[in-house]
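HOLO CASE FILE
Compound: PBG
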Amino acid sequence: MAFPVTRLRRLRRTEELRRMTRETWLSPADLIQPLFVCPGRDVARAVASMPGVAQLSVDRAVRAAEQAREAGVPAVLLFGIPQHKDAIGSESWSEQGVVQQAVSEIKERVGGLTVITDVCLCEYTEHGHCGALAGHDVDNDVTLELLAHQALSHARAGADIVAPSDMMDGRVGAIRKVLDENGLSQIAIMAYSAKFASAFYGPFREAAESAPQFGDRRSYQMDPANGDEAMREIELDLQEGADIVIVKPALAYLDLIYRARQKFNCPLAAYNVSGEYAMIRAAGINGWVDEERLTLEILTGIKRAGANLIISYFATDVAQLLSR
Ligand code: PBG
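Model generated. Tokens follow.
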């Protein structure tokens, strides 16, 4: 039955009616807070291109993790800024590394919080690429071994989930194998399965000090034009043992979040990346948009598209907002 009998505005009349008929609810439980961990004590070094985000020493990261948990955020995702970089990123599997320290401190001091670690070499290599080089290209199979070392060391430090973001072929299988062989079959893998070579990562590379020193990441990260290939990447990662898959970035790829939701019956995360954060913050600081409403609208849109989990630099702030 159409107009005038049907009037969709009837259920939009009051906030109570809108609440009753709301289809998508954003909850603190959907969110994951990324943290950048750096060497030192009592350090909070602001990241210029991401106002409100800072590199934190382990003690400060523990406090940030506590705040996330108190706001109802179930998990943090840790990135490390090492003391020294080298050609193969060897500090990334050091037992004394900042991420390893942060993981064990957070697991010890902050109960009831899941700790996820980003597994990638770009923050740890002097050339800034996500693996070991052969000439000017990243050597896929050599890199798999290095990533497996890193993932194992994170898991040994107490990480609940490891999250490979390098985009090498076969890394999920290589990591699953090393974890299982070392009695860590209970540790989950959240794979950055459909990760695109994106200009939206610009601010992150300042935050993580991980910009490539030559070339770009297009020989391993995906071409932004490819949706079918993204579905193949997800399918292969699931076959290799991924427990959760990620589409990244989120906003220019909502169609792929939707497609992945329709196609696969697995937990799906979307990464609301640094450039997306920076654009909203910049417009908000300038007074050009209502930042709170814009953030809620965007995160709700990502959830409506089909993401079960959203990794966002807004996580703790939004969780506080939602429980107000
Ligand atoms: C590491 C990594 C990157 C991001 C997450 N893990 C950067 C990159 O691939 O260049 C981007 C996160 C963001 O932009 O918020 N490889």
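CASE NOTES: Residues 118, 120, 122, 130, 165, 201, 204-205, 217, 273-274 surround PBG (CB under 6 Å). The chain has a mean pLDDT of 97.
CLOSED: yes
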